[in-house]
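Final report, Chapter 2: Outcomes

The project's central promise was a pipeline that accepts a single protein chain and returns its three-dimensional structure in a standardized token representation, suitable for archiving and comparison. That pipeline is now operational. To close this chapter, we reproduce one record exactly as it appears in the project archive, with the input sequence first and the structure output second.
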Amino acid sequence: MALLVVALRVGDRALPLVWRAEAGPANIGFESQQRLLEQVRAWLPAGAQVLLSADRFYPSAALFGWVQTHGWGYRLRLKGNVLADTGHGDETITGQLAQGVAERYLSGVRLFTQGLMTNLGILHEAGHPDPWIIAMDCPPSRASVLDYAARWAIEPMFSDFKGRGFDLGSSQLWHADRLERLVLIMALAMYWCVRVGQDDALARPTPLEKKPGNKMTPTIGASGNSAAAWSPGSSAVCAD
């Protein structure tokens, strides 16, 4: 059973907004991705600015076309086998563009056989086995690559879903609709826990939280250098 989730970053965590369960391979295709993204888009007020982040398991030519058509900001991590044309020589793959470099920033790169235009930022920090190869809608820079770090807020959410929390894997559900209803119950419980924790931190901060210079967890928003912080109350959306 595969579960596709679009989550909203809230402070340093993420909360599930919409999801879809399907029996079969883990990589649920773009048709289901589009259905969830359209549902989120329908909820947004006019002029809302969104930064969509997704792991390298998800980007496709269709997903790039969708976010570009609807004007969403994006930080989409790519695998190393994506066809790329920088306009300065023969076609190559993204892994070769990242080979042997700690940082690299490329504008106007064509991806996939469809030749979709985007910008690439590559960052390979010491001690990490794989580089970040991030496609983005804005001029590439180290700061815009690091916007992708906001996606890691979804990892605690998945830990809560799995063995460290609700233990979803032990449900032994075989029907997608039942799994989706169970996720709804967990999402409501998770929202309540996060909200209570935030209110408690504001009303009864610990001695460490009272120290000058310790910033309280924001109610909503993205990292300071993120495109999703363009305006107060804008939303960073993470897909996984």
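Archive annotation: The longest strand covers residues 13-22.
This record, like all others produced under the grant, will remain available to the consortium after the project formally closes.
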